[in-house]
Amino acid sequence: MSAESALDRLDLRFRRLASAARLVDVTYDLAESPLGVLLVAATERGLCRVSFQGEEALDELASTFGRRVLRLPGGLDQARRQLDEYFAGRRQAFHLALDVAVRSSFQARVLAALARVPYGELTTYGRLASSLGRPSAAR
After folding, report:
1. What is the per-residue pLDDT across 35-83, written as a single tens digit (0 to 9) for each?
2. Distance between CA 7 and CA 3 in Å, rounded?
3. Model's pTM, two decimal places?
């Protein structure tokens, strides 16, 4: 057994124990996709962020959800699996708990409206904002 693999196992054990003891505000991992590397993050309530910014999004996660942000490989397997299925064309809808608690009421309405856009249909930010009565909200 190499010292590196023993350290890796110890590190992963620490991360899992910290998460299980609820000492972590946000867990995240990185996922490969056809569009590049995605940061996938979750709170105990559910998925809170999928970002193309990778680890550059960590400061925003910490300021939004809490300072205790920890990478937990394997901790977001369900979200990663559904993303893989989506990009492979085998999934058209996601079935994941979401954490939208820190979003404004308008942002929550936008996410709900976005979830109603059928698979394969295209819409714009402007059209979505207009349908919610806030056409100037699209930037």
Report:
1. 999 999 999 999 999 999 988 999 999 999 999 999 998 889 999 999 9
2. 6
3. 0.80
Measured CA angle at 94 (ends 89, 98), to 5 deg = 150
Checking DSSP bridges between strand 26-31 and strand 38-42, what pairing results, if any?
A: antiparallel
Over residues 8-20, the pLDDT tens digits come to 888 888 888 888 8
Amino acid at 56: E
Amino acid at 104: S
What single string gives the DSSP state of each residue in 31-66?
A: E--TTS-EEEEE-SSSEEEEETTGGGGHHHHHHHH-
The Cα–Cα gap between 11 and 72 comes to 10
The overall longest dimension of the chain from CA atoms, in Å, is 62
Residue 50 β-bridge partners: 40
